[in-house]
């Protein structure tokens, strides 16, 4: 075995031919095995991985590619704060005077209600207003004596409302007055001042109810939340090498031709933290820096997070991405081009939804026949395996310092040699001094 091969093993690289298509598979358990040279772990959502401390590559052939089977009860057990669709998995309990506070902001409460409740509230408000004013019109005419037989037989009698003879006709008159439908045989006279005042009040009330209903319907239809449904995130995130450094990638895309102006992408990690005072913070927030927070989304964009010393994933190996519990929340914000309203789209990735050693497939191709760029959304979630070290980014930084090179760049082996693992600037690390232990291995630069 050559020295270059030992370097690949020491870094924990897995070649494309041996890398499993999906590192974190659901429902595939393997046995726990251990030896003096390699320590392995077993998880219920992945495959057997070596511990980073031994720097040994697991050359086990991967399982065949297939879609993970996740049953309904397994989905319910996933502790997710932000759902894949962007909804928050949060509910409030034991809030003092909650109903009173919601009624104080009744417009927002009505906008947040489901459509069936809004329709029921609108219908009830109209029916009640018609009925209440119908009673008022009936009482006005009754107090004036318009329903008496002597009044009806008197040709010179002037009623408050002509054509109103019962409560049914009073209800119809209330309906015609509130919606300005137009009077036929029923119309008001100047005989009763109370009737004139009632007409004014009912007209104003009808306008207010209609304005409220129209405002709520317009707000529900034009909510930016609906626009966020056409902004999609990749189902999984990936970890791979980019420019010599470990990077975490996820993809966002816009399914409409209209653009999102001033697009801003951010990310954060929610996981447990234990302070120096042994205080346990179960949902601590770690900010995750992305390569470019301002995005021009003319086509799907791959968001890159470089795993450096400021990253919460700096000390995590491939196996840690399986065993540790955390949630990566991705947020996209921007203004809708057609309305100018601000929208926000969200998604999240659990530890089992981040695939180590993969990259996203290419989506955009140029069509010579039409002269247009074609975006194939059928490949939006597809990934392919690449050579990636399984050790943490911190260990790779240690190797760079020992080798005195600024960045470690891995090159896939050629079919002829099969043993070339190169370092930037043409240097090669030789860790093949067999008479020394791993801690005593020296780094030799060969020009």
Give the overall form.
Answer: elongated
Uncertain regions spanning at least 5 consecutive residues? 1-76, 407-447
What is the overall number of helices? 11
Give helix % range. 25-40%
**Biggest sheet overview:** 5 strands, mixed
Oligomer: single chain
Rg over C-alpha atoms, rounded to the nearest angstrom: 35 Å
Number of strands: 22
What is the beta-strand fraction?
15-25%
Alpha-beta classification: alpha+beta
Name the average pLDDT: 75
Distance between the termini: 20 Å
Question: How does this model look, in words?
Answer:
With 447 residues, the chain is an alpha+beta fold. A hairpin with a 5-residue loop joins strand 13 and strand 14. Helix 5 packs across helix 7 (167-178) and helix 5 (115-144) packs antiparallel against helix 8. It is elongated and about 115 Å long. The chain is built from 11 helices and 22 strands. Strands 6, 7, 8, 12 and 15 form a 5-stranded mixed β-sheet that branches. Strands 9, 10, 11, 13 and 14 form a 5-stranded antiparallel β-sheet that branches. The protein has a two-stranded antiparallel ribbon with strand order 1-20. It is 28% helix and 23% strand.
